[in-house]
Structure formats: structure tokens, C-alpha cells
Amino acid sequence: FRGDLVNKRILEIGAGRGTDLTILSQKGATAYNLDFSDNALKLAREHAKTKRVPIFPVKADAQALPFADESLDLVYSQGLVEHFKDDDRVSFYIIDTIGWVNRRHL
Predict the structure, then answer these.
(1) Less CB within 10 Å around the terminal CB: N or C of the chain?
(2) How distant, in Å, are the alpha carbons of 23, 65, 83 from that of 68?
């Protein structure tokens, strides 16, 4: 990520243990971790706690993002889309959403 991240609202869809989000939070971003898995959200909270940075877990479905339009500066995902190979609609939705948000704000 390039540029100043202070006060940027960043969402990672399917963040796993939140390694990237803790780094973004350390650089001043408001970091949101969206996952459907309680266990993944717990792991991310625990990881952030060890790094002494805040991240905000959001339990939700990636196909129904609980954020208002224009409320995020960056949405990204890595290592998630391949989990939906059997249903291309999910993959395209996630990619389209990420692209739309990022084109509007970057």
C-alpha cells in the first residue's frame, strides 16, 4: 500500500488471522476484518492484541457487506476468492465490489 494510511478506512474480506490488517493499523488505518468464521475473527482479535493495535472484526457474508456506500477507502482480499471456485457468482461479486470501492477512492 502506498501513501498515507492515517484515518483511511480499510476492509479486508476474509482476513484470516489479520496479519496484514495489524500492519495497516500500525500505520494509522482504521482496519476492519470481515469474515463469516467466528474462529477466524477470534484469531485476528488475538493477533491484533499481541501487536497492541486495534482492528475491528465484522462477522458477515462477503456477498452482503454491512457498510454504507462511500464509507470505505480501500477494500481488498487475498487468498479468499479461490475458496469459491464452485460458485463463480460469489467470486465475481467480491472482485466487482473490491474494484468498485477502490476505483472510487484511489
Answers:
(1) C
(2) 25, 8, 26
